[in-house]
Amino acid sequence: MVDRNVDIEERHVEKKSDSSLVASTFIKYAAYIIIFFGALYFLVTYVFPKF
């Protein structure tokens, strides 16, 4: 066998979890829930007693 000079490229793939994306999604849905309950509170407190 003849000695061959073969360059082998090694790749290390790391799965990265983007915690900032998870946090921003949580904040977005938490804001939706707060707005929903705020609108519900407004309806119960100010609109329903008028009937």
TrEMBL record:
Recorded superkingdom: Bacteria
Transmembrane segments: 29-48
Keywords, comma-separated and alphabetical: Membrane, Transmembrane, Transmembrane helix
This protein's name: Uncharacterized protein
